[in-house]
């Protein structure tokens, strides 16, 4: 009976499942501007992008939400009422940066209310080149997008013509070199040849003096098509910023420092080798002098020995002469 009652209790127990909390995000559509980011880990990349963009946007445009001035009536209000007012104000205002769903794996789009996203991107990359710090671990590329439109022939041409007219207004942009970069994802209606033709057509219409340069372009038209949306970006300092790749831009200073260190090591090795050679030459000269000194001593010693031998031989000759004289005297007496 006990086992049956336990089974009934288990059946009567309600099952509770934790609901998956999904953040409400918009969908990529026409009429937006922001940043197209490629990454490996989307969840961590979003946090990095928000921190990085907010940091530099605060320096350029000031804080996102200005502090409200405290009036005399606010002292009488409760803390809860003040908090509720701040929350309502934040809901009514649009956030400066907001993620938008692209439906493409590994690619994020962050919508922004900043007037010029290219200016913000250039400030980020200039800081990275100056300091050499890696501002993002999960962010690969960060491309500023001026406008998004539908991926159709008429819409792409229309927006390209509008932005070309704005570029030509400045006298500095009359003679430039340019390059076209296009990438199409999950769209079979438009090919890269079509995109190249649209850009070339608008450039020849408004700026026929511009020249194509693949190695050193002053402007780059970045056309990124994601499903049914086209993202248009006009980029400056494309090669200096390593094609707007944060990690590669930060590694430039590392390479330069490593080259300088390697040159310093080579110089130290050369100086050490020169010192070793000089020391070897000094040692060889000392050794040669020692050999010469030893030879001179040997010569002196040999000369001394020869003198002694002569002295030794001299008395033996005197003895011989004395003996011969004695023999001659004895012979004379006998005769």
From TrEMBL:
PROSITE patterns reported in the protein's UniProt record: THUMP
Alphabetical UniProt keywords: RNA-binding
InterPro entries: THUMP_dom (IPR004114), THUMPD1-like (IPR040183)
A Pfam short name: THUMP
Record's compositionally biased regions (Polar residues): 300-322
GO molecular function: RNA binding
Metal-binding found in the keyword field: no
GO process annotations (BP): tRNA modification
Skewed-composition ranges (Basic and acidic residues): 285-298
Domain THUMP residues, every copy: 127-236
Region annotation (Disordered) ranges: 252-335
Name of the protein in its database record: THUMP domain-containing protein 1
Organism: Argiope bruennichi
């Amino acid at each position: 009976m006990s086992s049956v009652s336990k089974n009934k209790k288990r059946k009567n127990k309600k099952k509770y499942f934790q609901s998956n909390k999904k953040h409400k995000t918009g969908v990529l559509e026409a009429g937006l501007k922001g940043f197209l980011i490629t990454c490996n880990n989307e969840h961590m990349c979003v946090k990095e992008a928000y921190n990085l963009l907010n940091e530099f946007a605060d320096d350029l445009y000031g804080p996102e939400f200005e502090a409200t001035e405290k009036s005399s009536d606010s002292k009488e209000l409760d803390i809860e009422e003040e908090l509720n007012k701040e929350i309502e104000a934040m809901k009514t205002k649009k956030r400066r940066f907001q993620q938008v769903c692209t439906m493409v794996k590994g690619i994020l789009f962050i919508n922004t209310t900043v007037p010029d996203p290219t200016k913000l991107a250039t400030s980020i990359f200039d800081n990275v080149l100056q300091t050499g710090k890696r501002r993002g671990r999960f962010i690969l590329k960060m491309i500023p997008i001026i406008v998004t439109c539908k991926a159709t022939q008429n819409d792409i041409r229309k927006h390209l013509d509008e932005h070309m007219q704005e570029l030509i207004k400045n006298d500095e942009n009359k003679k430039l070199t340019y390059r076209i970069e296009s990438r199409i994802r999950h769209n079979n209606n438009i090919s890269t040849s079509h995109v190249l033709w649209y850009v070339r057509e608008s450039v020849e219409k408004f700026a026929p003096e511009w020249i194509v340069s693949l190695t050193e372009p002053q402007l780059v038209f970045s056309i990124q098509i994601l499903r049914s949306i086209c993202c248009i970006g006009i980029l400056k300092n494309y090669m200096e910023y390593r094609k707007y790749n944060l990690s590669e831009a930060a590694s430039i200073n590392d390479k330069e420092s490593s080259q300088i260190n390697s040159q310093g090591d080579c110089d130290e090795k050369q100086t050490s080798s020169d010192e070793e050679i000089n020391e070897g030459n000094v040692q060889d000269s000392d050794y040669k002098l020692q050999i010469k000194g030893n030879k001179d001593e040997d010569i002196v010693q040999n000369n001394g020995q020869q003198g002694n031998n002569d002295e030794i031989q001299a008395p033996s000759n005197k003895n011989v002469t004395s003996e011969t004289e004695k023999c001659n005297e004895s012979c004379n007496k006998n005769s």
